[in-house]
Write a structure and sequence with these properties.
The chain is mainly alpha-helical. It has nine helices and no strands. It has one domain (2-130): Serine Threonine Protein Phosphatase 5, Tetratricopeptide repeat, CATH 1.25.40.20. It has helices spanning 2-6, 10-18, 34-40, 44-52, 67-73, 77-85, 100-106, 110-118, 123-130.
């Protein structure tokens, strides 16, 4: 599964997930999960597919970003909603301590801010970091 993700074989990743491959497998040379590799490649269809198959939505990739954080970064509100429905942590900060809500506020993504708020994100943390 990791090899398929690293080789950007997205259909194969989805098929392996359907076949119950270990979604938490990591490459030996780094600590990224398949979900991290997929979201960092901006493969939203595969991200949602892995989320629906039970991938750890709070695993972290580059700079400590979760799949939710990556989706917020790209303004992918439908993906944000899907991840929140599957219990992604709406307050999980990246390595800089920025929350998904702060990122959505900084980018003025009102629809994403609303989804995060509805999903339990803390506005207080975003306000504190912004001031």
């Amino acid at each position: 599964l990791v090899v398929a993700a690293k080789e950007r074989q997205w259909m194969l990743v989805r098929r392996l997930a359907d076949a119950r491959a270990n979604l938490e497998a990591k490459a030996t040379e780094d600590t990224k999960t398949v979900l991290s590799l997929v979201t960092e490649a901006l493969q939203w269809e595969t991200t949602v597919h892995l989320a629906k198959r039970g991938a750890d939505l709070n695993s972290r990739g580059d700079a400590g970003k979760t799949a939710l954080f990556c989706a917020v970064d790209c303004g992918q509100d439908d993906v944000v909603q899907c991840l929140l429905q599957r219990k992604a942590d709406p307050n999980a900060p990246d390595d800089n301590g920025d929350s998904p809500m702060l990122r959505a506020c900084n980018r003025q993504l009102e629809h994403v801010m609303r989804s995060l708020f509805d999903g339990g994100a803390s506005i207080d943390d975003a306000v504190k970091r912004a001031s």
